[in-house]
């Protein structure tokens, strides 16, 4: 099923404004946490970068970000919310390629492969902002390079999951990836995190049917490795589960630079 493409920005619930004035500090602090860690930036420099951005209004659930965001090639920073990069097949099936979480960047430049061949669909209400042109902000090049390295690593993990892991390990490994990524944002509390991904979407990300995903979730629950209740997921012992399924955490780049 394809999401309808709208001619206007109907998925945006407000006009574009300055990011610093439209998002409360606590709302964008999680994205700032990730920016600081992967971009080797201090809080002041990261805050200046976001403050210079142009906010896009609130994005509703189920909209295509490529259609709803204002046109342009400047990168997009996810401030709040979740989205998925998905490829639809002619027969109506879909493959979820990756997920977007707070602090992630979308590279919209011509030739950016993921932007060209995927649709980006919001899974929750979202706030995004358009970062200034790279040549205008020195820190942005370093940040984008670091984000690109990490997104490539997540894609490699997705390939291994689909190609070599069994069903239980696929689901567990993806849940551990969510935990790793949300930890960068400061969104983990006592091994718990908000988990808005439906089972059909989880299935499209792991190559499993809804029934199979449900069975794997129940197995992980029975082993007391996870608890899932009211969109709150708890991974009771992440280190032990990671060791059992062969999870490899993506390291944060110590320093990334734009290729010359």
Question: Could you explain the architecture of this structure?
Answer:
The relative contact order is 0.14. The strands form three sheets. This protein has a five-stranded antiparallel β-sheet. The protein has ten helices and eleven strands. A hairpin with a 2-residue loop joins strand 10 and strand 11 (232-235). Mean pLDDT is 84; it is low at 1-10, 14-26 and 256-260. The protein is an alpha+beta fold. The protein has two domains: 17-153, Jelly Rolls (Sandwich); 166-245, Arc Repressor Mutant, subunit A (Orthogonal Bundle), CATH 1.10.10.10. Helix 6 runs antiparallel to helix 7 (167-185), helix 7 packs across helix 9 (210-222) and helix 8 crosses helix 9.
Gist?
By secondary structure, this protein is α+β, with helices and mostly antiparallel strands.
């Amino acid at each position: 099923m394809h999401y309808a493409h709208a001619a206007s920005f109907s998925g945006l619930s407000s006009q574009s404004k300055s990011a610093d004035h439209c998002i409360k500090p606590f709302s964008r602090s999680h994205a700032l946490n990730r920016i600081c860690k992967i971009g080797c930036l201090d809080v002041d420099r990261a805050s200046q970068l976001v403050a210079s951005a142009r906010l896009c209004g609130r994005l509703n659930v189920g909209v295509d970000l490529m259609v709803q965001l204002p046109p342009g090639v400047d990168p997009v920073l996810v401030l709040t919310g979740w989205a998925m990069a998905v490829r639809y097949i002619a027969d109506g099936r879909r493959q979820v390629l990756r997920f977007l979480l707070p602090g992630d960047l979308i590279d919209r430049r011509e030739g950016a492969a993921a932007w060209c061949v995927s649709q980006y669909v919001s899974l929750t209400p979202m706030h995004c902002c358009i970062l200034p042109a790279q040549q205008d902000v020195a820190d942005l090049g370093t940040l984008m390079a670091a984000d690109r390295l990490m997104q490539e690593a997540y894609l490699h993990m997705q390939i291994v999951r689909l190609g070599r892991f069994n069903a239980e390990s696929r689901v567990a490994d993806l849940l551990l990836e969510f935990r790793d990524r949300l930890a960068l944002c400061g969104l983990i509390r006592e091994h718990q995190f908000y988990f808005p991904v439906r089972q059909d979407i989880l299935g499209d990300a792991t190559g499993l049917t809804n029934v199979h995903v449900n069975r794997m979730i129940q197995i992980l629950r029975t082993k007391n490795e996870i608890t899932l209740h009211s969109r709150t997921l708890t991974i009771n012992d992440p280190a032990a589960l990671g060791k059992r399924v062969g999870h490899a955490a993506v390291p944060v780049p110590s320093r990334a630079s734009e290729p010359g």
